[in-house]
Amino acid sequence: MSRTVIARRYANALFELAREKGELDRVEQELNQVVETLERTPELQEWLAAPAVDVERKKALVAEQFQALSDWTKNLFFLLLDRGRQGLISRIAEEYKHLADEARGVAEAVVTSAFPLTEKEKEELAAVFQDRLGKKLRITNVVDSDLLGGLIVQIGDRLYDGSLKTKLIRFRQKLTGSRVG
């Protein structure tokens, strides 16, 4: 079974519990805190992954380092340690975020533009797509000077390409395709 499928199962179980308890935001913040801490301290990651270290010592350190965590998040971490799957925590956090966003009616959008978008442009763009999708957008702007102008908007598996570069390519294809003999 793939690591993504396993991470999705853990995330789904935690999500259902957090939703039932009305703690979606808190658990998401806690998962992000754990992931950030582990990314900042690779030594801690290595120590937690070391098979020579007793699981109970690992749990004691986690309980000490992450005292503010809810019981649900802490118990998930302990379960991962028991099963030697602590390396999945960042994937679980990603999957949880997707589930929580879906429950909140929020979608992630990656907007590629030739120049950085202003906050006002992001808001206007979010409003246009919110009407289309019925979801609020969280926009991440990627700048690609090769576009020349226009935008490429990716929301999940949907791609809206309104870039000048793509329009010019299509126009060229029409011109070359309509040549007479």
UniProtKB/TrEMBL annotation:
InterPro entries: ATP_synth_OSCP/delta_N_sf (IPR026015), ATPase_OSCP/d_CS (IPR020781), ATPase_OSCP/dsu (IPR000711)
Primary residence: membrane
Keyword annotations: ATP synthesis, Cell membrane, CF(1), Coiled coil, Hydrogen ion transport, Ion transport, Membrane, Transport
Signal peptide residue numbers: none
Organism encoding this protein: Planifilum fimeticola
Coiled-coil regions, chain positions: 10-37
Protein name, as recorded: ATP synthase subunit delta
Cell inner membrane found in the keyword field: no
